[in-house]
Every structure is written in structure tokens, then in C-alpha cells.
């Protein structure tokens, strides 16, 4: 968009003054940021309006991405960039002697998600808009985001994340589009005079769903889509029924906090309320919007695609059925045809404990009408399946099983498409986790390997690298990521390799300064920066990383002249508050950090930095500075991973097991350009099946390993309570569920190869360049194009305009 610096400066001053009634010179960073954000939002608003109108006018098919989590990250920089205004804004502010970077840091980072699944949803929003596709997000406006993590004495402490404190300039409260969501009470069906069975409700709890809309700005294509987040309120007309603040709590708490767990399913009533609240409001508003299209209801699937991001929004299936039957008076068969063609489902995890199953009694009581519909879906499913496939398959795949509603089964049965998020993961779904369904509906299954938006994760997070690539291959890769492969042509170009090394060093210096500032630790920017950033979970094996560091430490102590390349081990990870073991791992890493970072024998050879409160904003600082990307989950456990892609795109070399998307990274960049170690998923399956694994044998037979494990309990690591014992126990006495000891030797070996390669900076840079140049296939733009072609059947509206 066209705005001159002069115009911007004038409008910014006005904006500030109209908001705060004093001059910008007196503003705090938060105030200045708010004024700037609102001004940018003003610039966005006409495109936002026009995009919406265009979709309606052309009767464009819309995708609705239903997700309990979104992690958009800070939006000022990315919105200004996508609008093409970033340079103007920076220049204008510097004329006013203000620093854009400083103001941008004042923005709260909305932590409305736990991890990968939530960040993926936001990368997808960015790509949908940038491809000019009509894609909307639908989620919850949690008043408190994922807890703010602090370390006290090395222990994780959780603080509330009040991200709305200084207001949120990007959102628009949309009171015209509220919906009513009903919970509980009694429901019965009665025939009306047209012979329709219609439900009657009594004693329901009615909750008003208020949408807050946030613009999702496409990259220089005038497209602005919508992210709609719902907030729960008391219906105005019922306010008089509430006499005390306490009585209003059950309503307000629905959208108060995000569940901070991404692995342990807890059958909590409040979570089910959240899920239905978001689903019901979302589906109601879709159907309302659909009416503007003036096409028959049977054509809903031609105009609407609803995507179910993991099972959390799977109640979309019965809710859409409810609306079509109870409110639109369609027959069951008509409604089912529409629902099934409209819905599609992505699975993001094979962890048993993360697969949602709700007690039937709970569902019945909280959502009586929805339960009736689920029961009917289940009955019809069983009726159809039993004669064709027999007892075993039918009962294994039923929605209602042993007193619970199996949400994955509901999602698969109610969707025309089911996908995993990396090739291996999809294979595992088809051959293991959902294998009976694969027999019933092979045509539904497909793979969609995850992707990331290069705009946020390269262009914006790593401007110096972006400049270097532009210099060498021109700017086409920004719109057509596949062009990045042209960069491969520079793998032997000395000048390029030197510049690439310089860029990395600059990024490392910046991170080193930040480490000094927030952790008080001095690190050498020339050391190798080794990064593991992701949720803390035993299957991701941060403790394998820990054991290797401890091993190195012991070797250095035994021989201070040992030839180790100086390394900084960098961690960022939150543990679910109730995940005791994960928190113990955090504590041990922190205590080891205290030991290692202050040991004069060690010096710069080894430093450990565990950042607090890992999230999108921290990731943007860490990733451009990484040399090594740790992707060391037990093979078969990590569905895809996405930090692996972000790190690769920024030139880190991957150190990985053959798990999730690591396999595809290896295939694209070539085996010689990353470090692979450990069991394959096939070997993991075999080991589990033949039950032959004896962790204690490894402990007893490998002296180096024994040495390391013993150091957990010997008092070597200071200030531990029982955390060292807990780790030792789980690994040695409880037979090491995630085969950490089994993979230890090959991990150490791979780490030594990392050292050797780092000594040859030229060769390192060459491999780094090849990684960058091979990262294009992991652009979320391509991932979204595949969802659009294969699942949603939507096209770019920008292309359409151009005819
Ligand atoms: C039901 C509740 C316990 C629950 C809450 C959140 C269950 C799962 C989750 C989140 C899962 C998640 O983030 N999965 C990650 O999705 C990424 C995007 O597909 C993958 O890259 C990553 O491997 C996977 O762990």
C-alpha cells in the first residue's frame, strides 16, 4: 500500500494525540506501540472490508480452520511488512527519534496455544491470506494465555499471562455477530404441525458468545482474512438473573484460561465446555454467513469447508448436524451428506494419553442434544459397518466405547478427509493408530506434511540472511519459495560462504548480548550454538541432550585439555504444570547449568543457557543464531515437528532421529548434510513388540553411560532434591520408556561428528547453505496449497481477479 513517510508521521502524531491527549514525546513504549498498532490497523481496515465483500460478491468458498489454539506471535512487524509499510514506518519513527524495534517489543505476544499445533494454525492463517484464499480462523479468546514461566531456584514456576493488560489493538469486538450457546438442562423432542421432530429445552445455561475479530494480512496482495476468537459473556437479557459476582463465574470462566497441557488428556468438564462453546458459536456464525450467499443449503459443502485441528473441535460434526436438523429442518440423511462433505480432520499426535475421550455421562449432562446426535451417528455407523466388516472392527472403531465418547473416532467418521502431518506420521496412523479406519475408509486418508511461513521465520526474524539471499539470487524466492534452490549454486562460492558465516556470527552476537542481559551468562559468539526449543516432554528427550552434556562435562573434568569445540547448549521449554517428571528434567538441566557455567576448568568449552518462558517471540531471537538443531525425539513419537523446519531455513544443521518431518528434511537436503542417529521407528516398534529391552543391562555394560547416570545421584550436580534420583530411576529402574539409554551411544557419536565438522568452518557454511537452499518444500504456502487442492477445494481469489 502507498503511504509516504510524511503522511505516516502526521497520522501517527494525530493518532497518538487522539488516544492519549498529550504529545507522543511523553508517551511510554506501550502507549506509543498502541498508537502505532491502531494506525496500522486503520491502514488494514479498508482491505479487510473489501476482501470480505469480494468473497461474498463472488460467492467464494470459505475455509474455516477450527482450532483451540493459535499462536500468532507479535503482529505489528508482520502486518506492516505484509502491507509493504515496514520501511515507511521505520523511517517515519526514526524521524521522530523513536525506535521501531523498541516499540515492537512492547507488544504482548498472545500465547493462546501450547506449542506446535497452535503455531501451525497461525502459520496457516498467514499462508491462506498470502495465497489470497478465503481462510478464516475460529478459536477462543482466552483471557489468560499459556502461563508465563519463571525459574525459581531452577524450578519452573507458573505465573498468569495477562496478555490483554494494555489492550489488544488488533482485535475488533463484533457485537453484531454474537451467538447464543446452550449448556445442560433437559431436552426432549416433540413433533410440530409439519411433522418435524423439534427439540424443546428447559433449564439450560445460556452463554453469549462474543466474537473478537483480528485481521490476517496477506503478503502484498490486498487480502485480509479474519481470525475470529470467541469470548463468553452473560446474555444481556439474562443479566437480572445473576445476583452476585460469584454466580457469573461459571460463565466467565469458560474463556478465562488456556489448558496448559499438550500431552495429558484430563477429563475436565471445563475443557469440554470450552470445546463446545467455540464449536457451537463458530458453526452458528458460519451458517449465518452462508445465508448471504443465497444458494440452497445442500450446496453448503461447495461454499464452506470446516477443518478440525486435532480432535479438540470434533464436536463440529454433531453441532453442524444439530443446526441442519433442528434449525434448518433437513432430514438426517441430507444433513449427514452435508456435514461429512464439509468437515475434514487433522491428527497431530499418536500419544495415547493425548487422545480425547469424554465420559458419556459428562457429555450427556453437559450437552444433552449433542449427545443424542452422537448416539444416533454411532448407531448408524454400527448398523452399516457390522454386516460388512464384522464385530471386531466395528467395536474397535465405534464412537461410543466403554462409557466414553472417542473423539478421534467421531472426527474420522464425520469427515471426508483425515490427514497426518508428516509422511511417517500418516503411515503410523494408517498402520497402527487408526488402522481399522484405514480398512474402512482408505480413500479418506492422506498426508499433509507441515510447513512454516518463511515471512515470519526468515524474512522478518533473519533480515541479514534475507538480504544475502536477495543479493545472490534476487527476490523471487519470497513469492515463489521453490526458487530458493537456486541458492544451491553458491555452495562453492567463497564470498557467499564467508558472508553466510558473517550473518550467522552477527545473529549469534545479538543472541549472546541478549543472553547476557536476561541470564547474566557470558557466552562466546564463536562457540557452536546448539539449540533445543520445544515443549518439555519425555518423548522429545531433552534428558538425552542433558545426559550428553553431562558426559561432556565429566570428560572435560577428567581431562581439561580434551579437544572439544566450545559449545553453548541452549534450551527453551515449558513443562505442563502437572507434568512432574518434565519439571524434574528442567530442574536438573538448570542445576547442571549452574555447575558447568561456573566451573573454571570448563571455561568456554561448555555453557548451558535455559531461557525462561519460551514462546514465539523468543524463538524469533534464538532461531537465526542456531548452528545445531536438536530434533531427538524417540523415532515414531514426534508427529512432525516444526522447529526443525524453522531452524533449517535459518541455516542450522539438523541433529536428528529419523522421526516426523526429520525424515523429509533428510530426503531434501541429503543425508550427508545433517546428522542422523538412533533407532528407526521400525526398530522402535520391534523393540516394543518383543519386549526385549533391558535398560539396566546398558547401564551396567557401558562404563561411560554408567558414569553419567551415576553422576545424577552422586551429588556431582548441586542443589538437587530428589530430581537426579527420579531421572535415574525412570531410566534404569523403570526401564526407560523412551529408549534414551539405547540411543545414547549413537547420539554421543553424532555429537562428536558435529564437533569435527565445526572445525572446518568453510565446510560447515557450505552445508548450512545447502540446508537453507533445500528448505523451500517446508513453506506453509505449499502445505496450504495442498490442503486447498486435495481437501478443501478452494483456490486463490487473487488469481481469479487477474483472470
Ligand atoms: C487434548 C489435549 C491434551 C491436547 C492439547 C494440545 C492434546 C494435544 C495438544 C497439542 C498437540 C501438538 O501440539 N502436537 C504437535 O503438533 C505439531 C503440528 O502438527 C507437530 O509438529 C508436533 O509434532 C506435534 O507434537
TrEMBL record:
Q: Which domain of life is it from?
A: Bacteria
- List its EC numbers: 2.4.1.1
On this chain, the residues bearing N6-(pyridoxal phosphate)lysine are 646
Give a single Pfam family match. Phosphorylase
One of the record's GO molecular function terms: glycogen phosphorylase activity
The first-level EC class reads transferase
GO BP field = glycogen catabolic process
Q: Which residues cross the membrane?
A: none
* Any one GO cellular component localisation term in the record: cytoplasm
For this UniProt record, give its keywords in alphabetical order, as a comma-separated list.
Carbohydrate metabolism, Glycosyltransferase, Pyridoxal phosphate, Transferase
| Keyword Ribonucleoprotein part of the UniProt annotation | no
Q: Could you tell me which InterPro entries the record lists for this protein?
A: Glycg_phsphrylas (IPR011833), Glyco_trans_35 (IPR000811)
User: According to its UniProt record, which reaction does this protein catalyse?
Assistant: [(1->4)-alpha-D-glucosyl](n) + phosphate = [(1->4)-alpha-D-glucosyl](n-1) + alpha-D-glucose 1-phosphate
Q: Which prosthetic group or cofactor does it need?
A: pyridoxal 5'-phosphate
Q: Which family does it belong to?
A: Belongs to the glycogen phosphorylase family.
Cited function: Allosteric enzyme that catalyzes the rate-limiting step in glycogen catabolism, the phosphorolytic cleavage of glycogen to produce glucose-1-phosphate, and plays a central role in maintaining cellular and organismal glucose homeostasis.
Kindly provide the name given to this protein in its UniProt entry. Alpha-1,4 glucan phosphorylase
Q: Which organism is it from?
A: Alkalibacterium pelagium
**From which lineage does this chain's organism come?**
Bacteria, Bacillati, Bacillota, Bacilli, Lactobacillales
Amino acid at each position: 500500500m502507498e503511504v509516504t513517510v510524511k503522511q505516516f508521521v502526521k497520522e501517527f502524531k494525530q493518532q497518538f494525540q487522539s488516544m492519549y491527549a498529550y504529545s507522543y514525546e511523553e508517551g511510554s513504549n506501550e502507549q506509543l506501540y498502541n498508537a502505532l498498532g491502531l494506525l496500522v490497523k486503520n491502514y488494514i481496515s479498508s482491505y479487510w472490508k473489501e476482501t470480505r465483500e469480494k468473497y461474498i460478491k463472488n460467492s467464494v468458498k470459505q475455509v474455516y480452520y477450527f482450532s483451540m489454539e493459535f499462536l500468532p506471535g507479535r503482529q505489528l512487524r508482520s502486518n506492516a511488512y505484509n502491507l509493504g509499510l515496514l520501511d515507511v514506518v521505520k523511517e517515519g519513527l526514526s524521524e521522530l527519534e523513536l525506535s521501531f524495534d523498541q516499540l515492537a517489543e512492547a507488544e504482548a505476544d498472545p500465547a493462546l496455544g501450547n506449542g506446535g499445533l497452535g503455531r501451525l494454525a497461525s502459520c496457516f492463517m498467514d499462508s491462506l491470506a498470502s495465497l489470497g484464499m478465503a481462510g478464516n480462523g475460529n478459536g477462543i479468546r482466552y483471557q489468560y494465555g499459556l502461563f508465563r514461566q519463571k525459574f525459581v531456584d531452577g524450578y519452573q514456576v507458573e505465573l498468569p499471562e495477562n496478555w490483554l493488560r494494555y489492550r489488544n489493538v488488533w482485535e475488533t469486538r463484533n457485537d453484531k455477530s454474537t451467538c447464543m450457546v446452550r449448556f445442560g438442562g433437559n431436552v426432549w423432542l416433540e413433533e410440530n404441525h409439519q411433522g418435524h421432530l423439534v427439540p424443546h429445552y428447559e433449564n439450560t445455561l445460556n452463554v453469549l458468545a462474543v466474537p473478537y475479530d483480528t485481521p490476517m494480512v496477506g503478503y502484498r496482495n490486498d487480502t485480509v482474512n479474519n481470525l475470529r476468537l470467541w469470548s463468553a459473556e452473560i446474555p444481556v437479557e439474562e443479566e437480572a438473573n445473576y445476583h452476585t459476582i460469584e454466580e457469573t463465574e461459571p460463565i466467565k470462566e469458560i474463556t478465562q484460561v488456556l489448558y496448559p497441557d499438550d500431552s495429558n488428556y484430563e477429563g475436565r468438564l471445563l475443557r469440554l465446555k470450552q470445546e463446545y462453546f467455540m464449536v457451537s458459536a463458530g458453526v452458528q456464525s458460519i451458517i449465518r454467513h452462508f445465508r448471504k450467499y443465497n444458494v440452497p443449503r445442500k450446496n453448503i459443502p461447495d461454499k464452506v469447508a470446516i477443518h478440525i485441528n486435532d480432535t479438540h473441535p470434533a464436536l463440529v460434526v454433531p453441532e453442524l448436524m444439530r443446526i441442519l436438523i433442528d434449525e434448518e429442518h433437513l432430514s438426517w440423511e441430507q444433513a449427514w451428506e452435508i456435514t461429512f462433505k464439509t468437515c475434514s480432520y487433522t491428527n497431530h499426535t499418536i500419544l495415547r494419553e493425548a487422545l480425547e475421550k469424554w465420559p458419556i455421562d459428562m457429555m450427556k449432562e453437559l450437552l444433552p442434544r449433542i449427545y443424542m446426535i452422537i448416539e444416533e451417528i454411532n448407531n448408524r455407523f454400527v448398523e452399516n459397518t457390522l454386516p460388512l466388516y464384522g464385530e471386531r472392527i466395528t467395536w474397535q472403531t465405534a464412537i461410543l466405547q466403554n462409557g466414553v465418547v472417542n473423539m478421534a473416532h467421531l472426527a474420522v467418521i464425520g469427515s471426508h478427509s483425515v490427514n497426518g502431518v508428516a509422511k511417517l506420521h500418516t503411515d503410523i496412523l494408517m498402520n497402527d493408530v487408526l488402522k481399522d479406519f484405514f480398512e474402512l475408509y482408505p480413500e479418506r486418508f492422506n498426508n499433509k506434511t507441515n510447513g512454516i511461513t518463511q515471512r515470519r521465520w526468515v524474512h522478518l526474524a533473519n533480515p541479514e540472511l534475507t538480504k544475502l539471499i536477495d543479493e545472490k539470487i534476487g527476490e523471487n524466492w519470497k513469492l515463489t519459495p521453490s526458487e530458493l534452490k537456486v541458492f544451491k549454486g553458491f555452495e562453492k562460492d567463497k564470498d557467499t560462504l564467508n558472508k553466510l558465516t558473517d550473518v550467522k556470527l552477527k545473529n549469534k552476537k545479538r543472541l549472546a548480548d541478549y543472553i547476557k542481559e536476561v541470564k547474566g551468562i557470558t557466552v562466546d559468539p564463536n562457540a557452536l550454538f546448539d539449540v533445543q526449543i520445544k515443549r518439555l516432554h519425555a518423548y522429545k528427550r531433552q534428558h538425552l541432550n542433558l545426559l550428553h552434556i553431562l558426559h561432556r562435562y565429566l570428560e572435560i573434568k577428567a581431562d581439561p585439555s580434551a579437544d572439544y569445540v566450545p559449545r553453548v547448549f541452549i534450551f527453551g521449554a515449558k513443562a505442563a504444570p502437572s507434568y512432574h517428571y518434565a519439571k524434574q528434567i528442567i530442574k536438573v538441566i538448570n542445576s547442571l547449568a549452574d555447575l558447568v557455567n561456573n566451573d573454571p576448568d570448563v571455561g568456554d568449552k561448555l555453557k548451558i543457557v535455559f531461557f525462561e518462558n519460551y514462546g514465539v517471540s523468543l524463538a524469533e531471537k534464538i532461531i537465526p543464531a542456531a548452528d545445531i538443531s536438536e530434533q531427538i525425539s524417540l523415532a515414531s513419537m514426534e508427529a512432525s515437528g516444526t522447529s526443525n523446519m524453522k531452524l533449517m531455513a535459518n541455516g542450522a544443521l539438523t541433529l536428528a532421529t529419523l522421526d516426523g518431518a526429520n525424515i523429509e528434511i533428510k530426503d531434501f537436503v541429503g543425508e550427508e548434510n545433517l546428522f542422523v542417529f538412533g533407532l528407526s521407528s521400525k526398530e522402535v516398534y520391534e523393540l516394543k513388540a518383543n519386549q526385549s529391552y533391558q535398560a539396566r543391562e546398558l547401564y551396567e555394560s557401558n562404563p561411560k553411560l554408567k558414569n553419567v547416570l551415576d553422576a545424577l545421584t552422586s551429588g556431582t550436580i548441586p542443589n538437587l532434591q530428589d530430581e537426579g534420583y527420579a531421572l535415574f530411576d525412570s531410566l534404569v529402574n523403570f526401564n526407560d520408556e523412551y529408549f534414551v539409554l539405547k540411543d545414547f551411544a549413537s547420539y554421543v557419536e553424532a555429537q562428536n561428528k558435529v564437533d569435527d565438522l565445526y572445525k572446518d568452518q568453510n565446510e560447515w557454511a557450505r552445508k548450512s547453505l545447502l540446508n537453507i537452499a533445500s528448505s523451500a518444500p517446508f513453506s506453509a504456502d505449499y502445505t496450504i496449497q495442498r490442503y486447498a487442492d486435495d481437501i478443501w477445494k478452494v483456490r486463490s481469489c487473487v488469481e481469479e481477479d487477474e483472470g
